[in-house]
Amino acid sequence: MSVTNGGPHRPRRRWIWAIVALVTAAVLILPVALLVSLKPGQHHEHGPVTVYHHAVTAVRVSAPGDTVAITAGRTGQVSVASTVGWLVTKPAIRERWHGTTLAVSVHCPARDLVEGCSASLIVRVPAATEVRTAVGAGTASVAGVAGPVRVIATSGSVVLAYLSGPVWATATSGSITGMTGLNSTKLVADVGSGSLALGLDTAPRSLSLAVGSGSGNVTVPPGTRCRIDTGRGTAVHVSPGMSSPDSAGLISAKAGSGTLSIVYPGGLPVPPPAAP
C-alpha cells in the first residue's frame, strides 16, 4: 500500500464528477430545449373588443409579464381589446367595475414552467381618466391622458407620451422613456438598475428623479429655472444656469452608484434674465 503524507492513497473518483456534470447539464439545458421545441405550437387568439358605455373616473390594469397600452379614447366610453398566447393553459382576463373604476387583470397559471402564457391589452379611456397600471417583464405605455397616471414595471419598460396630468413612474430593473408630448408639471420617476430618458415640453413645477445603479437623462425646456435639490454625494449633472433659489419650481434629483443628467435640449444656453 502506498502512503502519502502519512495516510493511504485514495483513488480519484472522476466518475462522480462526470455524473454531476451530466446531471447539471440536463437540469440547465433540457428545460430550454423543451421550451424551444414547444414555442412553434403556441396558441394565439384575438379576443373580442369589449366596449363599456359607463361613467368612468379611473382604470386599474394589472398584467404581470405582459404588455399593456392605455390611450385616450372617446368621452363616456371605455374599450378593452386583448390578444393572448398560451401553450398549456389559456390566460384569463377579468374585467370588473367598482363604482366608476374599471379593474382589468390578467391571470396565468401559478406554475407556468414553459413560460407560454402571455397577453397584450389595449385599453382606451376618456382623456380625463385616472390611470394605474403595473407590468412585470412586459411593457406599459400610456399616451394622450390628462388625468393622473401611475405606472410600475419590474423588469419591463414604461413608455409615456402626450401626458398633461401628474405622473408617477417606477421601474425596478427596466426602463422609463418619454420623449414626446410630456406636459406634466408634476412628475416623479424612479429607476433602479435600468435607464431613464425623458424630454419635458413644459417647465416643471415639481420634478422628482431617482436613479439607483442605472443611468438617466432628462431634458427640460430652454429657459427653465428651478430650485435644485441633488442631496449629497450624488452623481447628478445639471446644466449651468438652471438653478434659481427663488423659483417656485423644484427639481429633486438623486443618483446612487449610477448617473443622472438634467439638461437643456442640445445644450442650449439659458437666456439672460429680463432686466427689472
Description of the structure:
The strands form three sheets. Strands 3, 4, 6, 7, 10, 12, 14, 16, 18, 20, 22 and 24 form a twelve-stranded mixed β-sheet that branches. It is built from one helix and 24 strands. The protein is flat. It has 276 residues and is mainly β. The longest helix has 25 residues, at 14-38. It has one helix at 14-38, and strands at 3-4, 7-8, 43-46, 50-52, 58-63, 67-72, 78-86, 92-98, 101-107, 118-125, 130-135, 139-143, 149-153, 157-163, 167-171, 175-182, 186-191, 195-200, 206-211, 215-219, 227-229, 236-238, 250-255, 259-263.
Secondary structure layout:
Layout: E1 3-4, E2 7-8, H1 14-38, E3 43-46, E4 50-52, E5 58-63, E6 67-72, E7 78-86, E8 92-98, E9 101-107, E10 118-125, E11 130-135, E12 139-143, E13 149-153, E14 157-163, E15 167-171, E16 175-182, E17 186-191, E18 195-200, E19 206-211, E20 215-219, E21 227-229, E22 236-238, E23 250-255, E24 259-263
Parallel strand pairs: 5-9, 5-11, 6-10, 6-12, 11-13, 12-14, 13-15, 14-16, 15-17, 16-18, 17-19, 18-20, 19-23, 20-24, 21-23, 22-24
Antiparallel strand pairs: 1-2, 3-7, 4-7, 7-10, 8-9
Number of strands: 24
Could you list the spans in which at least 5 consecutive residues all have pLDDT below 50?
30-38, 268-276
> What characterizes the major β-sheet?
12 strands, mixed
Estimate the helix proportion, in percent: under 10%
What best-fitting shape do the alpha-carbon axes yield?
A: flat
Order of helices and strands: EEHEEEEEEEEEEEEEEEEEEEEEE
Mean pLDDT: 84
Which class best fits the helix and strand makeup? mainly beta
Strand content: over 45%
| Whole-angstrom Rg | 26 Å
N- to C-terminal distance: 102 Å
Number of helices: 1
